[in-house]
Amino acid sequence: MSDALPVLWITVGLQIQSISYSEEMSSRHIAIYARVSSSGQDLAAQEPDLQAWADHHADGREVIWYRDTATGATFARPGFETLESAVRAGLVDSIVVWRLDRLGRTAAQTLTFLSLLDDLGVQLVSIRDGLMPGRRRVGSCGRSWPASRSTSA
User: Fold this and answer.
1) pTM score > 0.90 for this model?
2) Catalytic site residues?
3) With contact defined as beta carbons under 8 Å apart, do 114 and 75 qualify?
């Protein structure tokens, strides 16, 4: 039980710091979210592609990185919770992930989050899945899928 208190304090501290910093921003930012499932893994496979995307597409907009080392089975992750708070506060223009499964492993939670993004006008880019703004839109959540993807059942 005593191990949980420092983790809780760090999470709250990160959220307060993020909110304080965000209040000073004059425009919405691009959020880059990276996640690995365990401390035995690292973000080395994801970060170069994410950084290259930011280098080519940020167009002068601020880019803020959100990272987690936690299972994708739940959305109760410090980095994701901070990201979601920024999304709900209207501070995020786009979220960029390496693959869609980096957001979450459960379809229900991920679809709920994608619906929130649609409702708030936040673009989603998934580099490895080919999910990019400006491509033909299909699907119930209005996400952008590559034009080459089949929509037939």
Assistant:
1) no
2) 37
3) no
